[in-house]
Design brief:
The chain is an alpha+beta fold. This is SMC domain protein.
Length: about 425
Amino acid sequence: MSMKINQLEIENVKRIKAVKIEPSANGLTIIGGRNNQGKTSVLDSIAWVLGGDKFRPSQAQRDQSVIPPNLRITMSNGLVVERKGKNSALKVTDPNGEKGGQQLLNDFVEQFALNLPRFMESTSKEKAQILLKIIGVGDKLVTLEKEEQEHYNERLAIGRIADQKEKYAKEQPYYNDAPAELVSASELIKKQQDILAQNGENRRKRERLHQLEQEDQRLMEQIQELLKKQETVRADLAIARMDAKDLEDQSTAELEQSISDIEEINRKVRANLDKEKAEDDAREYRRQYDQLSKQLDEARDAKNKLLNSAELPLSELSIKEGELVYKGQQWDNMSGSDRLKVSTAIVRKLNPECGFVLLDKLEQMDLEVLKEFGEWLESEGLQAIATRVSTGEECSIIIEDGYVAGQEHPLMEDKKTEWKKGVF
């Protein structure tokens, strides 16, 4: 069961002369009064008694008092905590009469409970980190958020490249009349040379025919002398005529035109290839972008599942993008009552054995907010001791000039002796 404050007795601390207070076990106990009457001194005293020397006021002893501070707090389990004497030595006595020290107090006193405004004034991300730590998912969430950020950064880079590739592809011209592959000038030249060689061979054969015809003419003139030779020549002539009969020269005009146009053709082919390559690159980077989007969504889902499965202090409390969110609102948009609820619930979660919190300067909250917060504290079985610059009915007690208004100066009602300085 969580520890609460049953009774506190304070003398000669800061502005406090002598007060005795029995706060409500559950709900909100408001210490009211005008400024500079000792309200905050009550909270500082509680923090000092339970939190140790790091909460000790720099000028703990009340001005104009020769008696050192004297503080005593009785906890709900019977534990008695005292600081008194010249050095304000700590004395902790448990219900069985055994004594302890600050370490015993540290086991059930949460530091933020002694200074809740410190928690409330921290940044939203700091609050979220505290909550993640106490629900035990901080390290896992850091890993998932790192993974999420890596996926996001990689996807962002890939997306930019994909956009650049798509833009480049759209800007490239495309020629439908260009062939699919680059044209080779050497192949065209070789074909041209082959045709020219064939034409040269044809020319040689024609020249041979002409020579034979001339020879025949000469032989006809010398028929008598060359009769025998004439028959041989006529035989060769018949063969030559057969060879030359079906010869047909091929035109190189098309190849010559292709050779002259090859640079333009190849320019178009290269442009088409560049456009196709850019489109292929864009599709690939878009595929990578979509894959990274899927991985990013999976990382975010894993993070959300981790947070949803964690045991949070409040049902509608969550963490989104590294910040606290309650009832769908971030810290700066929460109502004053919701801020108090969230802070108190987180502090309780930090140390479930600590059933109380201290709150200073609640004059910033209107009466409706205070009422709502008080009802919530009671429903949760929590105790809050707060100060407020007010003397209204909402105040549980009023501090005037270092005393509780309407309270006799002797702190211990069961003592019959008159009030003496430095003695409870």
